[in-house]
Amino acid sequence: MFVLRMAVRETRSSWRRLLFFFICIAVGVAAIVALRSVIQSVRGVFGREAKSLIAADVLISTNREWTPAARAAIDRRLAEAGAPLSTETIETPTMVRPSDESRVSARMVELRAIQAAFPLYGTLELASGEPYTHAMLEDRGVLVRPELLTSLGLTVGDQMTIGNAAFTIRGVITNEPGRRVGDFSLGPRVLVDYADLPAAGLLAFGSRARRVVLVKVPDDKIDPLVTALRSDFKDEFVNTRSYRGTDDEIGEDFERAENYLSLVGLVIVILGGIAVSSVTRVFVQQKMRSIAVLKCIGARSGQIITVYMLQVMTLGLAGSILGVLLARLAIAAMPYAVASAASSSPASSLLSDVDYGVSWSAAGQGVGIGVLVSLLFSVVPLLQVRLVKPSLLLRDESVAGARDWTRLGAIVLVSAGLVALTAWQASSLQVGLIVCAGFTALAFVLQLTGRLLVRAVAPLALSRSFPLRHAVLHLSRPGNQTRVILLAVGLGSFFIVGVRALQASLLEEFSLASAEDSPDMFLMDIQRRQADAVRAFLDQPANGAGGYRLIPVLRARVTGVSGRDTRLDSFEDVRARGSLAREYTITYRDRLEENERLVDGQFWRGASSDAEVSVEKGIHERFGIDVGDVVRFDVLGRLINARVTSLREVDWKDSRSGGFMFVFRPGVLDDAPQTFIAPLKGPEGPDARARFQHTLVEQFPNVSVIDFHEILTTIRDVMSRVTLAISVVGGLVLFSGALILVGAVAMTKFQRVYEAAVFKTLGANTRTIGKMLLFEYGVLGLLAGTVGSLGAVALSWGVSRYALDIPWRVFAGEHLGGVAVTAILVALIGVVSSLDVLRNKPLATLRAE
Amino acid sequence: MTLACPRLPHWCAATLLLIAAACGGNDASNDTRGTAEPAVSAVPATPETRAGRDPSPRPDMAGGRPRVVALGDSLTAGLGLKPEAAYPALLQRRLDEEGVQYEVVNAGVSGDTSAGGLSRLDWALDGDVRVLIVALGGNDALRGLPVEQLRRNLSTIIERAQTRQIEVLLAGMEAPPNFGQSYTVSFHEAYADLARQYDVAFVPFLLERVAGIASLNQRDGIHPTAEGARIVADNVWRALRPMLQ
Hints:
heterodimer; A: alpha+beta; 3 domains; six-stranded mixed beta barrel; 24 helices; 16% strand; elongated; B: alpha/beta; five-stranded parallel β-sheet; 38% helix; 11% strand; globular; disordered N terminus
């Protein structure tokens, strides 16, 4: 039991250093575990949000009647998937009126007939605050939107006629899960009992209704179920989608947020690994002299390796466990921190929904990383012990590098363990391999760049300032810290700055999608003779409409193109080009909108009798229509040859100004038949909106008003939750990343202690040594920060483009700030962690070493 | 019968798609968005009335035959069909086969309501128009617009055509049963009343034997397939043929 005793003794003699090692590991592991846990539960919340948007896991819908065969097929698939719950609804537009015959007004509504199990996810909220139960609808009850009551002049308790039956209004809906975000509606929502629908007599031959089966299935069965149903019904009028469907914008945004979070999860694992590895390396390097001494007095290599492995493993394991405990504490404290930061926002409820606990998988991963990484970075150097000669004690001799298969084997074995761990984290072996390979390549590149940069600052070694000269010389002296710090800090800043830049980019994307000032109402079919009157109506402050614009729209088709690259002489030729032949809605105006950017050519000013058209970039790219080409349009039967004078790029994501593929110069189309559409910001509050619609339609009966305020609010709400979650996770990355780097850098101080003591003996004062340390670490931090931030530009480009599918934006502030903060942080840590060295008498240090 | 910006594809990330789709654009970013309105309708050209608009007029326009103008919505425009499959084109072919020298003009605009039809009446009644087919109202029904308004717009169209000595063929439309009996009945009566009042040629229901039959309609359940359009052409033909020498 010599080995055990030796290990204990060794631990006792250098307990302070070991304690530091221990804490560094604990911090790294704590960061991994805490972040992974938060990310896991935030993802859970995303899932719930997305599910409540469609009120189900899977929707199967048709605008025909279900045939018995189709129903049987669906039921069979549901049974196969083990779906525990499903419910049916029917949606149809219809007219309702007060049952009181003295009032004649009728109003179009979007009726939905629901069964008791609806909604499968989310809650139906009522204005009265009482919880919704299906009993409210039974026996001809109806729940309505507030604007319907205003426009019909009814209150809760009144009777309302739907089709052939009278229904009693039992309550007012404020929030309805599963409201079809896919469609906008021409009327407010009305909910009735599924069983009462036949009584209304609305469903007959030729009725337009959408029948939906909402399904709840275990998460892992969702995709197989959707695939199976899609192939069953590929020739029929049946649509199947899951809550994860990315065929719409919000689905895409959810997916982006998820991808971002899993990316961050990987990054934190890597960061933690870096910290543990650099700490272990320094620790083992420090031991080399003791090992030489042990060899002098006859210890065998095997014994020595076992002693130190035992030490490292015990400390790694204990540190990891402490890390898990730390993570637990940090997470338990989070609700308080977040609640005070975001108490006013509606999004705070997201974080109160989050389950604040450490998940087992996160804890397992954290401990696994802690132990495996410390093993990887201790086994490999420790195996060198076999080659250490006692003479090392006397001469600072480098260990000769014969090919050492055992060592290579050990590297491969431990690396395989790490790949497995990453694959587990990413839940894909391929991703695990790619990440590990990419990571190794990155470390290599960083190393190379680091060397180049060190060479680049070499001239500073001729500087007159003693501290600066020495600081620079230190970078390439034997036993230098350059490699360790460049690698740890460079990779650290690379990931942190990269994640920050991605976060900023993602949030900008989301804020565009849910901008506060975007229009939430839409008027269509305003006739030309009504345009001025509608303008006057909207201008009247009493009506409460916010910003609006009237856009003239016409319909046109391209019937020919004569251009440099494209020549289409007849409509047949155009048709061969696919969607170029479709009917386009066009407009004319003499300025670019906010969401448009001129790509080529010149945009006109003022009107002209010559037809000119500006073409969207997408059309230019797909059909090769260029500036200078002539496009023949058929505008309601008249042919117009328009010369393309400019190309525009429309930012489709920025909705405020709409988007047109073809914009004409004013002058040619002014007399053509046209209608106007008007996006506008409606009045605040449901009552005001209802009144606004009511008076508008009274005055302009042919104008249809589409109000999507409610949908917009729901989406904004969800987006702000997602945004907050991402910001919180981003903040955690920054914080824990900084902690990890502090640990990694501070650990290197042990190599400085001896040097500092020698300098002191030779007469250097504390100030000079302090400056030397400041410069050395400052230069290192600057180098590492520069490499990391540059790399982060590439990282954010790659990820924006390939993983998140968003436009790449460069946030110069984040990157420059990253360099500055890294340099300052590293310099500070370097000096502060060496304070004891600076203060101590050199003799004490020399003896201890 | 499509609305100007119908069935907003998917969630309208809110406004943006709404407007983008309304404006028929946005097929650059994603085809599911842009296909709110599939490739559409023939609008065979009418001759140019203004010099300089079109330096290269089509050869077949030189004849200056008398005209039949079909003023309508997407059902007339032939939404989702090849231009030659829309019913006005089919009418043209039958006239040509019978050697009747008329030119059928497709003045169908997807999404148009009766109010829209009224406001572009003058543009459509260009040249030597002898017969006006009025096939409007489908979008009024889909949007649940007041029947009173439909009635007023249609009667104005008929009156204006009649004062110009143009014969009118009124094609009726039905509101789907889901709007409730009182709306569907008054909608139905509006056409019958107008036909009686102005004594015009009348097709009681343009989509007779087509509406509600899955195999004759496109995926949206609103617009006829090519097969359905042939039946629509039959419906119109029976009333149209006697009006032409």
